[in-house]
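@channel sequence for tomorrow's demo:
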Amino acid sequence: MARAPQDTPAGLWTYLLLAVSMLFAAFPLYWMFVIATSNDEALAKLPPAIIPGDRFLTNVDEVFSLQDVYFAASLVNSVIVSTVVTASVLFFCSLAGFAFAKLRFKGSNALMLFVVLTLTVPNQLGIVALYIVMGKLGWNGTLLAVIAPGLVTAFGVFYMRQFIVNTVPDELIESARVDGATTMRVYATIVLPAIRPALAVLGLLTFVATWNDFQWPLITLSGTDFPTSMVAISDLASGNYVIYRRVLAGAFIATIPLLLMLFIGGRQIVRGIMEGAVKS
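structure tokens (generated this afternoon):
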């Protein structure tokens, strides 16, 4: 009998390459923290400063004290927008993915093809039309204008459809129907528990993308008292003289929620990526 192939243990060069890659990936974040804790002269030092200073709380206090930036409100707004959009995407995209994957209805293939084709259209092409629509609704300048366009995403529908096809057996759904389960009950009791890892991946990607979104919030919320964190950081960097220690202090604070999301959901995210890559 043939012996099953064994995994080859990673060697020294593999760990060394991974360590170097991690250093390169983490250095921008670390240097941002260094400048956020330093004075104005640290940015012009040659070689660049690599040791954190002792002015972090001072710089953060200056950022939150600026009257025309509304940085504290921007963080709250970003939390609201990102949370609402993420929850909506997880619900509607998983529901639509379930419909495309397991329900049989006329035109499903054509509709799925249309959803995938929308991924090829750059978002910038719809900015003018989106601004006009939001203006007709009276939503420009409010958080609704930022939330509404992201409630459902084509990528989320496609990703959930592929995951459900590979993860949820048709026989399990048929047996539930024989027992008298409705479509929504099948979705709630069979599909949702099976796709938790995929929901974690999609949730993190959606939260990060919404939190980091800059172009549309800048257009619709510019000049209002309700900016998002990215718009507030842009306001910190505007003007004739940019104080970079303030800008990077604000950017570091705005990065903390993303790091917390990654820390909390890291295990589910890795599990979702691995299960999505291996066909059942």
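heads up for whoever presents: The mean pLDDT is 86.
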